[in-house]
Write a structure and sequence with these properties.
This protein is of the alpha/beta class. The chain has a single domain, classed as 3-Layer(aba) Sandwich (Rossmann fold). Helix content is 32%, strand content 24%. The chain is built from 7 helices and 10 strands. The strands form 2 sheets. It has a 6-stranded mixed sheet with strand order 6-7-8-3-9-10, sandwiched between helices. Helix 3 runs parallel beside helix 5, helix 4 crosses helix 5 and helix 5 packs parallel to helix 6. The structure holds adenosine-5'-triphosphate and magnesium ion (MG). The site of adenosine-5'-triphosphate has 13 residues, from helix 1.
């Protein structure tokens, strides 16, 4: 589903953010990306999302080599990937429901379809009562759930989530993980970047560990 071979990525002339990254994530897997702050977790997710382009190496999404794909083709590829950003990136001037329905507006879906899908997603994350609120009037945990609803409202086969429980208390974190597990149970490939915590140490799921831009363990699934 997601394959990377010897991927290098740097921001301008700075030292590289990703160095020789090789990994493979299969369809319907649930994988954690972990490592200390600055290790490259966000950079790795952004590279998978094609928000950052790699300097060298190969990236395959859905079996298609996308490392050198034209910028103009990226929006189409991205429709198959849901992304929850570390800082949410919710539009402050749009309501919760408008934020969630944005993908459908972009592709010009019929009004009725947008409303139906948005309501379904709101119900799923338990935020029907916040439909007409603006994101900044929502708590951190609520904004996090809006970001997740927005990322999966169009049923993408891949969901990338960057620190989806950052700053949340343990109870809210469990709720967010329950949502991500539900998405994964529907057959979606889920990749979650998260700081190293005791919690990750106890998970049964695969953990890809990064240090200073390199994969130090877990890049390939043990057979
Ligand atoms: N937009 C940027 N421009 C230049 N350098 C960047 C940029 N974003 C990240 N970096 C650098 O790339 C490296 C990896 O950063 P990244 O944000 O991917 O780490 P991270 O593992 O997600 O950290 P955190 O746990 O703090 O979120 C760091 O050295 C960082 O300073
Ligand atoms: Mg990060």
């Amino acid at each position: 589903m997601i394959q990377m071979y010897h991927v290098h990525m740097s921001y301008g002339s700075d030292s590289p953010a990703l160095t020789d990254v090789t990994l493979r994530i299969d369809k319907a897997e649930f994988v954690f990306i972990t490592g200390p702050s600055g290790a490259g977790k966000t950079s790795l997710l952004r590279t998978m999302y094609l928000a950052e382009r790699c300097d060298s190496g190969q990236i395959l999404l859905f079996g298609q080599n996308v490392s050198r794909v034209k910028e103009s083709k990226i929006p189409f590829l991205r429709r198959k990937i849901g992304m929850v950003f570390q800082d949410f990136k919710l539009l402050p001037t749009r309501t919760v429901s408008e934020n969630i329905g944005l993908v459908y507006e972009i592709i010009g879906a019929p009004r009725r379809e947008i409303v139906r899908r948005t309501q379904q997603a709101l119900r799923w994350v338990g935020l029907e009562h916040k439909a007409h609120a603006f994101p900044l009037k929502c708590s951190g945990g609520e904004q996090q759930r809006v970001a997740i609803a927005r990322a999966v409202v169009h049923d993408p086969p891949i969901l990338l989530a960057d620190e989806p429980t950052g700053n949340l208390d343990p109870v809210l974190s469990q709720e967010i993980y329950a949502l991500l597990n539900e998405v994964n149970a529907r057959g979606v490939t889920v990749v979650v970047a998260s700081h190293d915590t005791g919690w990750i140490g106890r998970t049964q799921k695969r953990v890809i560990r990064l240090e200073r831009g390199r994969v130090v363990s877990g890049g390939l699934r043990e057979k």
